[in-house]
Amino acid sequence: MNETPWLTFEEASAHLKAKFNVSRAPGTIENKVYAKEIESTVIAGERKIHRDRLDEWALQDTDNTP
Q1: Which tens digit of pLDDT belongs to each residue from 4-19?
Q2: What is the per-residue pLDDT for 63?
Q3: Distances from the Cα of 27 to the Cαs of 2, 4, 8, 56, 57, in angstroms?
Q4: I want to staple 53 with a disulfide (CB 3.0 to 4.6 A). Which of 15, 22, 23, 39 is the partner?
Q5: Using only C-alpha atoms, what is the Rg of the chain?
Q6: Which pLDDT band holds residue 64 (cuts at 50, 70, 90)?
């Protein structure tokens, strides 16, 4: 698998749709990151979400039902 493990808010939104069929706007994901509901880190000055942490959040968040 050649996918990068770090996602932007836009990539995270697309990932949730593709993997879980859940629609979340990039701005919603950004809000959840800043509310510390989803773990993130800053890489080269840009906030990124680790794909595995996003998947964990998606699987435990009850609002993520299709």
Answers
A1: 899 999 999 999 999 9
A2: 62
A3: 26, 21, 11, 19, 16
A4: 39
A5: 11
A6: low
Could you tell me if 56 and 64 are in contact, meaning their C-beta atoms sit under 8 angstroms apart?
Answer: no
CA gap 8, 60 in Å, rounded: 21
Chain position carrying tokens 């808010």: 9
| The two structure tokens encoding residue 22 | 């859940």
Q: What's the whole-model pTM score?
A: 0.85
**Tokens (6 digits) for 53:** 């942490």
Give every strand in the sheet of 6-7, ordered side by side. Answer: 6-7, 46-50, 41-43
65: its two tokens: 């039902």
Contacts of 32 by beta carbon, 8 Å cutoff, 6+ apart: 38, 57
Encoded amino acid at 37, one letter: E
| pLDDT per residue as tens digits for the range 19-49 | 999 999 999 999 999 999 999 999 999 999 9
